[in-house]
Amino acid sequence: MRTDRAAVSGGLDPHRIAEVIVTTTAGGGRRGSGYRVGDTAVLTAFHVVSEAAGVQVRFDADRPGQWIAAAEVAWSDSDTDVAVLVFAPPPGAAPVVPATFGRIGDDRHAVVDVHAAGFPLWKRRRSADGRQFRELHQADGTVAALSNLRTGTLEITVPVAAADPDPEVSPWSGMSGSAVWAGSHIVGVVAEHHRWEGLGRLTAARIDHTLSRAGEPRRGELAGLLAIADPRSLPDVGPGPALADSAPAQAGSKVIGLPVTHGLELFKDRAEEREMIGRHLSDPAIRMVTVTGRRGMGKSAVAAKVMEMLEQGEWPGHARAPVPSGLVNLSTRTSGISLERLYFDCARVLGSDRETRLLDIWATNRPVQDKLGELFAAMGDQLFIILMDNLEDRLQDDGRLDDEDELAVFIDCLFRAGSTPRLLVTSQIPLRLAPELRRFAAEVELSDGLPPTESVALLRELDQDGSLGLAQLSDDQLLQASVHVHGVPRALELLVGAMADDMLTLPTLQDVLEDFTLRGDVVAGLAQDRYQRLGPDGRTVLNVLAVLRTPVPREAIEWIVAGLDPGLAVAPVLSRLLQMRMLSVDRASRTFALHPMDADLAYGAMPRDGALGRRSAERRAADWYAHVEPPRANWRTLDDIQPYRREFDHRVRAGDMDGAALVLGAISEWMVWHGSVLAAVSMHLTLEGQLTDDRARLAHLISFGYARLSAGPLADAADLFAEAADMAERLDDRRALQNAMFGLGDAYRQLGRLDAAMGPLARAGDLAHENGDAEAEVHAVLDLSLAHSTLGDGAAALAGADRLSELAVASGDLFTEARSWNARFTALLAMGRWEETIAAGDRAVRAYRDAGIQEATDYALNAKGVAMLALGRVAEALTSLEAALRAASTMENPRTEGVCLYNMAWAYWTDGRYGQAAETAERAATSLQLAGAAEAAAAQALAEAAHARAVPDPQAAADALDRAADGVGRNVEMVRPAWLTEEAERLRGEV
Length: 991
Description:
Structural class: alpha+beta
Radius of gyration: 34 Å
Strand order of the largest sheet: 1-2-3-6-5-4
């Protein structure tokens, strides 16, 4: 007999989950779910087995130990939608202990964790042999006890279905009949999904209500089938004293990033807002929760407090949900909020194994949407929460992100994907969303300051030692001060700071309050007054920190101040500012920072020009980062170029656009190669129309061109490179001209303008040779040879391969030798010299391996496969193409994956395996779409042809083959279009 933990301890046992397969009296089919509650009984939903001519129950579906038995309906009730099936287990089937049943009380407020497992439509998959099946899905959610009182059912909130494959059918179809568990007790059966309630709500029949509504003797019959001793008193499994089999409390969450504010031990009130935030974050249908309010209202503090509670394993208020697996803290005022920071920190929170894979994916040329899809897929069904603090720094006045802002891509993917992290955002203004997305977002507004009691308590805590005299003031006096500043938490802190600052006149609280006029913006007035109370040394240091906008070490402050005011002693000033609570310090990193509100106000008060003005301070800050920037030879990750990016930002704010362009020109291509394409584009757009120096303009044009070459539009890249080439010619900058010509040729080649590509690529190769840039020369010759192959000029393509061979012999470089074979097998493939293609492909694979590089082994193996297909060696072709596909997947290159899959689909077609051909062509279309390749339409057409051929429908198959042939174009890496059109003509002859 099988003995396992579930069987012994109670609870959901995966071996007892049943797939219910029904043949209806009308001759159709239906599928649902169920659970083996006893040796011979399965609990399910009535509508699953209604009008059934035959029923089968299958256990351990498609797994070792699978078994199927015929079943019949022993008990059913259409009103409550519950049924019980009985069956005879096969000989040797393991006996099971009866399941235990319970109830969720509906006489009080409660939120109860529940789970169910079944076979929903959205988990439909296709096996390698083309057969469709449904994968098992475990749905973890909650039941709100007071919901659905009128219908006497359970409302289950679960993570939304990851897909909605058929708008006419619920994606949860097939989940019906699943047992709903609360702990180790069954409390209901999944019965319905109402589309208008969203994709994250299911309705379940209650077992206790089914028993109470059934009269005798039917109640006794059901209780006997379910092995329930007393059907009128099921145990209550809602919140209350811990059950003996309750799971231990979950540990806290893994946290990445420092809290976005400090002093959480003094946090006051906001209980209602925290509960609202917790309720929204625990709702699977909500993707983003935004905390809004004016500056200083405590948005960052309340968000940080929620994150602190979650870190400790506690949900705010009455929210009930699994403890998040990970928390990520980001702020525009500390680490910054960027697409790469989001991606990197989320990868870190997933752990080292998944982080390594995700960082490798980031460094590829795959679309950003694809990279984010991989990130969200790695998170799976686990709950992750990302705090994005002070998002207003990235928003326009109307709440929109700039069209080119990289965060817009992240937000778009967040709302499109089926399973994603949840965002907690703080912002003075909410992010403006499209109307159809607003139902997936929630806003919690902090419109009022702290209540009187909490305001008074905070003021007293800010004078813990009583040195400012607040301890001697009455609650009414402190309340009056709070009213003057509207109870705004940060204003209360600044109010006390203003008292502590003036060591000469020693003002009282009332003295400080009398300095203000009665106006709405008292927070700004208070902060500005406090800033003016500083001496010149204090203002200088404070202004430097306001310019820096991020935590920095003391060395940075001293270096920058030394260039602005050489005689100023920074250390005592920092000490004084810390005492006044004008600064915060992180002892672990030994960095200092100005509170974001103070930074904004201080920066705004600085003069624009002058020795201590904004522009001077920004230039000096830029010089600091230039001083600490690592050399290019030491660059390994994007973090290594962070000083360059900060230098760029400071030069832009200083108005030194030409200097910023030169900085960006040094790092832009490296950013593109390592996956930060959109960030590079955004930085270049900042410089458009702002440059006056030709050298700076040239650096911008070339590096912006390479960013557009990756991010698109390709036409824009070509225009940028053309302008750069003209300027480089005029400035007689041969190396810049080389880079511009190579980019221009590559842009034309990718645009399909092959004739136009030839001249620039040839010129780039000549210039690289002239400039002694051997690597660039090799690359240019290879690209030129590949372009000749695509044009069908085999002789010119082979000449390029011969030139690469000469360069390889002269340099002894193994990589160049491998590239020579790359050019050669491509040229031979284009010329239809099949046996020579196979031999050259083998040489290329060996050469790349000898060079220790996998760059093009997938192309070589694919070329071999196509040549073998031309020779009728289908089995060998499939072996080579499968190896090519594995190599492409290792390199995470979706375009090459799609090409290999397309060729494999044709191999299956020629072998008469039309089902596999259709499935493989569909996979090819998916990969090519991910890569943004034009050939995706050809792959989809080939899939349609294979489906039609299997019917069979020769005419439809022929038409689809013609479309596939048209979609391939001049791509020599894919099977010949002529092969498809010949097959189409043959099929039309069968009609």
